[in-house]
Amino acid sequence: MKYAAPRGTKDILPDDSPLWQFIEGACRETFELFNYREIRTPIFEATDVFTRSIGDSTDIVKKEMYTFPDRKGRSLTLRPEATASVVRAGLENNLISPDNLLKVYYLGPMFRYERPQAGRQRQFHQAGVEAFGSNDPLLDAEVIQMAVNLFQALGLKELEVDINSVGCKKCRPAYLEALKKYFQENVKHMCKDCLARFEINPLRILDCKEEPCQKYIAKAPAMVDHLDAECKEHFKRMVGWLDGLEIKYKINDRLVRGLDYYTRTAFEVVSKQLGAQNAVCGGGRYDDLVEEMGGKSVPAIGFAIGLERIMEILRKLNVESRASNVGLYIATIGDEARKVGFDLLSKARDAGISADFDYQGRSLKAQMKAADRLKAEYVYIIGEEELKKRSAILKNMETADQHEIAFDELIDNFSGECGCGCEH
Ligand code: HAM
Questions:
Q1: Contacts (Cβ under 8 Å, ≥6 apart) of 388
Q2: What is d(CA 163, CA 253) in angstroms, rounded to the nearest whole number?
Q3: Pocket perturbation via mutation, ligand 1, pick of 12, 117, 124, 209 by most ligand atoms within 8 A of CB
């Protein structure tokens, strides 16, 4: 029988890992520069955590959750995103309160039962941040700046930052009325999902990607024209900070995002180097969510980046990950040499030199081939003669330069350009 990874999932193989580690490293570094600290929450939560926060009318809750009963019949869901989990964890552990500014970040897998296609998987990975405790538009601008800085650190270009305000619970009802009035006429020409959205939450229609619906969506009223004075001022000040930071953005008044918890600022970063699934980052404010999930009223903002999509762009840009992490390969001939070689191997590792060895008793030729395949930087070759001299040849695999170095000196001197710390 042949097994295959479940549809919509992908193995991350050893050859892919260096690029993944590069991306994850850049995320951590940037987030920590802005003083965000890591939080890790469980991969599954009680289903309510997601249905309440993400919203009943969203595609995620309606069609995409991996929900199952556990052995005691409790409904659990694999996390489709992490914001709701972070709010749950923050409240449960008393980290979120109106007078505490909490800044956290996370990295990890998320699960959505979507139709798999390029840039869309059922298990995918996000890196995200959440900041609780301030409604200052400066924080909105700083969060967007952090995403932009991260993309710069990753060497990504041709990105566009789209921003919008989706208002608040005070001004949104009037906007929803305006939308309803507008779509009343047109919805019969639109897709069946839009018909349902019209009944439950007409705002979701703006998020429809179906081609026939686009011409109606394009002419729909815009939220920015229906903001109340406070939301308008918040948006204006946020845009002012972005201008001050010289961050380029586009105001996209159709941007509503696929989750219900957003208030005021909503933003996405899209890449021109990707196909249909071109959003590499999505986020925004969610000032009511903490209260809705049982806490006090604490404003918050965050974003999440889709790491598979970043990988795809970096691959397109031909960013080579570090090909090898083997600094030293020790090749040996005969049992006695193997013993000495293994001792040197352990010493190399103790000294922080990544090193590898032959575990199959192969010929010297096969060992050299293996070192080549591993792209080892240096090979140290120990045979009978070498055992007598207690000294052997160290070969630079890239330049083919080689010279002799004593067993006792190998590890201490394994540094500098030629790997042995000498004058070569
Ligand atoms: P989201 O827009 O649903 O937001 O997801 C964020 C990013 O995750 C997307 O821009 C995309 O790059 C990636 N992504 C989403 N679904 C998939 C998929 N099926 N396959 C591959 N990549 C995907 C959120 O999840 C919010 N929790 C973000 C947030 C944090 N808002 C406030 N704080």
A1: none
A2: 8
A3: 124
Q: What pTM was estimated for this model as a whole?
A: 0.91
Split into its structural domains, the chain has a count of 2
Q: Which domain holds residue 340?
A: 328-415
Q: Please tell me what DSSP assigns to residue 120.
A: B
Q: Of 316, 337, 372, which residue constitutes the final position of a domain?
A: 316
Q: What is the pLDDT of residues 293-347, one digit of tens each?
A: 999 999 999 999 999 999 999 998 877 665 567 999 999 999 999 999 999 999 9
Give, to the nearest 10 degrees, the angle between helix 17-33 and helix 307-316: 120
| Residue whose token pair is 């995403």 | 147
Work out the pLDDT band at 275, boundaries 50, 70, 90: confident
Considering only CA atoms, which residue is closest to atom 15 of ligand 1? 306
**Strand-strand pairing, 355-357 and 328-332:** parallel
Atom of ligand 1 lying closest to residue 126 CA: 8
* Secondary structure letter of residue 100 according to DSSP: B
